[in-house]
Amino acid sequence: MADSGLLHFLAGADTLARVVLALLLLMSLLSWYQILGKGLRTLLDTRRQGRFLAVFRQCRTVGECERQLPADTDDSSPAAARVAAAAFAAGRRWRLGGGDLASAAGGEFIERAVYRETAKARVALESGLSTLAAIASTAPFVGLFGTVCSIYHALLAIGQSGQGGIERVAGPVAESLIMTAIGLAVAIPAALAHNAFVRSGRLATAELEDFGEELQSLLASGVAAPQAGQGAPAWPLGVSREAT
């Protein structure tokens, strides 16, 4: 039992066991690349979107709100800014065609533009989630496969040696379970991160959908909201209907 442990297992591992370990290492690196990269992007996007909405919700007219948009909206712009830019662009096209934004057809035209941009944002939010889900679901089985193969080879070697005492069996079998532990160590962070990103994506999508409806109301009426009082915010964007 003295010559046991991870290093001893690696030293005596056959080709198949090393292939399984290399696969688990690759899955772990890919998982953490997605976790750290997507986590950082989500944090930065949330901060940028918060700053954009904090300024945008202060506007009271269509022209004032449109001036708050960045000069150029691209993939690095906040999702809310891209949705607003798409809504205002659709509004300009509809007005140039002689249409009335307050009509049902005009509202539907704006709604389609908002929906398309929101769908693009949803796809970006879901990027990388399938990779994390695949790693979380398959890594334990990859580790278990390595454990089964290692136990098989260990017992076969013990049988060929003719020495089958418990002290000869316990060490190799215990070392083989390392593969299962590594598989779980790879899968658990991927599963937790996947669930966290799914939840944050749903919240961000719900916020964009609410924002899109507020944009439609703004373009149809020409003003953000009736001013009920001086202390009340003109346009409480980002506040979900569930909270009210």
> Which word captures the global form?
rod-shaped
- The helicity comes to over 70%
What structural class do the secondary elements suggest?
Answer: mainly alpha
Low-confidence stretches: 226-244
* Largest sheet, strands/sense/barrel: none
Strand content: under 5%
SSE topology sketch:
Layout: H1 6-12, H2 15-56, H3 62-66, H4 79-96, H5 104-125, H6 129-161, H7 166-221
Descriptive tags:
7 helices, mainly alpha, 244 residues, transport, Biopolymer transport protein ExbB, MotA_ExbB_proton_chnl, disordered C terminus, transmembrane helix, 75% helix, cell membrane, single chain
Short summary of the structure?
With 244 residues, the chain is mainly alpha-helical. It contains 7 helices and no strands.
Describe the structure.
With 244 residues, the protein is an all-alpha fold. It has one domain (14-221). 75% of the residues lie in helices and 0% in strands. It contains seven helices and no strands. The chain has helices at 6-12, 15-56, 62-66, 79-96, 104-125, 129-161, 166-221. α2 (15-56) packs parallel to α7 (166-221), α5 (104-125) runs antiparallel to α7 and α6 (129-161) runs antiparallel to α7. It is rod-shaped, with a radius of gyration of 28 Å. Mean pLDDT is 79; it is low at 226-244.
